[in-house]
């Protein structure tokens, strides 16, 4: 065995001659390579790279009926991909704007039930048509070549000939003259780009706009209603009883953060009542109203033990004393249940005098700042 292999492709390896296996930089100067045509560079690179072409199947004849039919098929697939992608954008952006609004409710029907499936359908169809277009383009328009090539380290020669091969691939693809495919690709790319960017809108917009975590539907003059929609007057409840009430607004009895406990205290509880600071006038006579949402993990609290004046959360056993401003006296909860200021309207029905002055439910990281 000789110490130096003199076969084509073994004399170079870097921009300067060396022992690495690569293109023959000693045989062809950069000037000689620059003077060659792309086809010559392509063939030369294949020969010196040890590429063996086993089979070549050319693409359709340029301008032939076969090529035109294939171009129409590929363009149609890419155009449909763009159409479905833009339909995704229309559904996503248009909901609540020029299309019906949707809600996260299991019992919702109509548009709310169709919103998410339509997004999935249009995205799935768009991606499917992208795949169909690529398959049609590859099988019907690109020349097919089967070749075997040995791997080796690169050199200047390899870079130049590889670049010629890539340019040759673009030339063989026919994209430069098949304008229908090029335009449909641009249309599809725009639609897919928008489709993929749309869901990021929920991450970009400020989720605290309007303070959704710190406000509820309770407001001045809003009546307290039972679950069946009937209003409540003082005297409707027995002393020591608890009634879950909701705001008199559309869908109020389905708003999780608005559920409120209206409690009528017994005389001895009224004597022991010690409101929190700033809540002295929140009660109405022997009636107090507290949020039903536990401040620990958001479970509904309503197990009321009137003998001890405690409300129990069944999830983690936090207990709140209703005579002490519903402050926690046992369990993992660390904040008192927010109290709703209540009064009576001209017809003698209970109303809220304002919204809760603090956020209901569990603590969140920026609760004190909004």
TrEMBL record:
This protein's UniProt keywords: 2Fe-2S, Cell membrane, Disulfide bond, Electron transport, Iron, Iron-sulfur, Membrane, Metal-binding, Oxidoreductase, Respiratory chain, Transmembrane, Transmembrane helix, Transport
One Pfam family it belongs to: QcrA_N
Function: Iron-sulfur subunit of the cytochrome bc1 complex, an essential component of the respiratory electron transport chain required for ATP synthesis. The bc1 complex catalyzes the oxidation of menaquinol and the reduction of cytochrome c in the respiratory chain. The bc1 complex operates through a Q-cycle mechanism that couples electron transfer to generation of the proton gradient that drives ATP synthesis.
Principal subcellular localisation of the protein: membrane
Family of the protein in this entry: Belongs to the Rieske iron-sulfur protein family.
InterPro entries: QcrA_N, Rieske_2Fe-2S, Rieske_2Fe-2S_sf, Rieske_Fe-S_prot
GO molecular function, one term: 2 iron, 2 sulfur cluster binding
PROSITE patterns: RIESKE (PS51296)
Organism of this sequence: Blastococcus mobilis
UniProt lineage: Bacteria, Bacillati, Actinomycetota, Actinomycetes, Geodermatophilales
Gene Ontology cellular component list: plasma membrane
Positions of transmembrane segments: 77-99, 111-137, 185-204
Rieske domain ranges (all copies): 285-351
Membrane topology reported for the UniProt record: Multi-pass membrane protein
Location of this chain's protein in the cell: Cell membrane
UniProt-annotated stretches for the region Disordered: 1-31
Name of this protein: Cytochrome bc1 complex Rieske iron-sulfur subunit
């Amino acid at each position: 065995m000789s110490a130096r292999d003199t076969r084509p492709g073994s004399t170079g390896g870097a921009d300067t001659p060396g022992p690495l296996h690569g293109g023959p930089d000693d045989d062809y100067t950069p000037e000689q390579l620059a003077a060659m045509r792309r086809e010559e560079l392509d063939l030369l690179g294949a020969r010196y790279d040890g590429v063996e072409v086993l089979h070549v199947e050319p693409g359709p004849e340029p301008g032939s009926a076969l090529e035109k039919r294939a171009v129409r098929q590929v363009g149609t697939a890419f155009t449909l991909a763009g159409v479905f992608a833009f339909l995704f954008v229309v559904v996503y952006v248009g909901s609540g704007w020029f299309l019906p609004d949707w809600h996260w409710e299991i019992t919702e029907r109509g548009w709310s039930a169709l919103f998410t499936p339509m997004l999935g359908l249009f995205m799935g169809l768009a991606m499917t048509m992208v795949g169909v277009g690529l398959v049609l383009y590859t099988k019907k328009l690109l020349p097919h070549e089967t070749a075997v090539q040995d791997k080796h380290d690169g050199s200047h020669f390899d870079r130049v000939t590889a670049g010629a091969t890539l340019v040759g691939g673009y030339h063989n693809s026919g994209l430069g003259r098949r304008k229908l495919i090029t335009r449909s690709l641009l249309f599809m790319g725009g639609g897919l780009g928008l489709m993929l960017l749309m869901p990021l809108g929920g991450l970009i917009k400020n989720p605290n706009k309007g303070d959704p975590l710190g406000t509820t539907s309770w407001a001045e003059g809003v009546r307290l209603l039972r679950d069946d929609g009937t209003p409540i007057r003082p005297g409707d409840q027995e002393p020591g009883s608890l009634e879950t009430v909701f705001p008199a607004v559309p869908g109020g009895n389905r708003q999780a953060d608005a559920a409120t406990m209206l409690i009528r205290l017994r005389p001895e509880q009224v004597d022991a009542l010690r409101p929190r600071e700033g809540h002295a006038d929140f009660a109405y006579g022997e009636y107090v109203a507290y949020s039903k949402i536990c401040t620990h993990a958001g479970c509904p609290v309503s197990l009321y033990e009137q003998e001890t004046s405690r409300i129990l959360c069944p999830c983690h056993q936090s207990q709140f004393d209703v005579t002490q401003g519903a402050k926690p006296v046992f369990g993992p909860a660390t904040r008192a249940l927010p109290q709703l200021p209540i009064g009576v309207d001209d017809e003698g029905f209970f109303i809220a005098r304002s919204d809760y002055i603090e956020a209901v439910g569990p603590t969140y990281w920026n609760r004190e700042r909004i």
